[in-house]
Amino acid sequence: MSTHSLVARPTADGGFEGRYVHADAYPDHQIPLLLAARQYRFAENEAALTSHLIDEHPAGWDYLGADLALADTTPLWVAEFLIANGNEESSCMCHDWDEALVQPPMTDGDAVTRDDLPWVYVLRPQGLEVISAERDPQDLRGLVLPWSTDPSEHFTEARFQTWRPSSPRPARTPRLSPPAAATTVTIITKRPRTR
Ligand SMILES: [Zn+2]
Questions:
Q1: 119-124 and 127-132 strand pairing
Q2: Ligand 1 centre distance from Cα of residue 53 (Å)
Q3: Is 105 helix (H, G, I), strand (E, B) or coil?
């Protein structure tokens, strides 16, 4: 079964918003890609990376691939590791699929109400926050990995599922946005998944 996720950026009200990623979004696949993308292809340019992931592909992603992190500056061993670790080319629903609909960004409110987003990755200035949404759906916080983390580390699911916050939950009521009715894989009418 596909592992779905949300790749997001923080919002001013303390929440987050981002794009749905349909497949292969478990930590051991997604974290190396996001770390290496920031370190190499996007050269620490946070705005460029979040814009690419969130603004430029408004129907969301089928999956993220090694191309997200590949550039002339990417060390060969990192490139080889990422390619061996999953798909080589990313696939988005807006450009690579027919009839996919542009979506409003999915928010922390969506992550609270939906039960099909086990993982949320929030790109924060200080690092990549990895949230296991099943840990506590009412308290969507997770371990923040510094951006300098070695992408080839082994990122077990248990590491993030067993993490616990050291401070009380901030007194903020998550926005309960209306259900994102159009955010569904049934809009896909073409091209079977390759993996
Ligand atoms: Zn696209």
A1: antiparallel
A2: 9
A3: coil
Who contacts 161 (Cβ-Cβ below 8 Å, separation ≥6)? 132, 134, 135
Q: From ligand 1's centre to the CA of 158, what distance in Å? A: 32
Amino acid of residue 68: L
Each residue of 115-155: pLDDT tens digit? 889 999 999 999 999 999 999 988 999 999 999 999 999 99
Number of residues written out for the chain: 195
Which two tokens mark 190? 């073409």
Q: How many CA atoms lie within 13 A of 164 on its CB side?
A: 2
Query: What is this structure's pTM?
Result: 0.86
Both tokens of 177, joined, read: 């946005």
* Contact by Cβ (8 Å): 121, 34: yes
